[in-house]
Amino acid sequence: MTKDIPEPAVKPIEPQVRLLAAMAYGEASTQNNADEIYALASVLKRQRDARGYSSMEAFVRGEASFSFVVNDGNKRYQHFRRSTDTQILSDSAMKTAVEAAENALADGPDKSNGAWFWDGADISSNYAKHFKVKNGIRFGQPSHNIYSIKESSKLVIKYKTVKKKINGEIKIEKQEVYRYDHIYVSTAAHGGTIFWKQDAAYLKHTKAKEYK
Question: CA of 11: how far to CAs of 8, 109, 115, in Å?
Answer without folding.
Answer: 10, 24, 32
